[in-house]
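Structure (tokenized):
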């Protein structure tokens, strides 16, 4: 399976541009994980780091959930992979996690994020609040998510190259 990526049109309106770049970066992370085994996807970068491609996908599922469900929509959606006792639990893999499970969960959170975002204008304030107590607009959340994916896609580039030598965007 090859994930298709599409950059937004150069003359798109603000919302189309932001959502286009967000989807582009979501698709980039999916591409970085393609054609690898579960074992490869669980392989940590370099000790002592526990960073892995599967960990990044699990992390982004929780990030999508946090921003688009808890903050934007004001939903009571508990974290999926971490808790107060293990705040980096999304990166702590036991060795039994599967790509199918991680990918399906991530995609479900993306689908919910899209549905929730569709109910807001870019300048509308979120219904919920961040753990800092602040409220954010959908525009800010989309921009932050593009930054979050872009940063982690840089990590994914290095992880993938280490695993099988594959490079490229």
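Design, position by position:
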């Amino acid at each position: 399976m090859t994930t298709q990526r599409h950059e937004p049109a150069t003359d798109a309106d603000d919302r189309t541009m932001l959502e286009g770049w967000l989807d582009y970066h979501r698709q980039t992370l999916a591409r970085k994980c393609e054609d690898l085994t579960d074992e490869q996807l669980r392989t940590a970068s370099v000790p002592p780091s526990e960073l892995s491609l599967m960990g990044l996908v699990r992390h982004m599922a929780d990030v999508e959930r946090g921003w688009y469900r808890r903050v934007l929509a004001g939903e009571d959606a508990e974290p999926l992979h971490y808790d107060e006792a293990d705040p980096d639990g999304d990166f702590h893999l036991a060795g039994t996690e599967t790509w199918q499970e991680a990918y399906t969960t991530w995609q479900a959170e993306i689908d919910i994020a899209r549905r929730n975002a569709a109910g807001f204008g870019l300048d509308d304030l979120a219904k919920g609040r961040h753990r800092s107590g602040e409220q954010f607009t959908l525009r800010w959340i989309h921009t932050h998510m593009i930054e979050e994916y872009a940063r982690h896609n840089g990590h994914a580039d290095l992880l993938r190259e280490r695993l099988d030598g594959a490079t490229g965007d």
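Reviewer-requested clarification: The two ends are 17 Å apart (CA to CA). The chain is about 55% helix and 0% strand.
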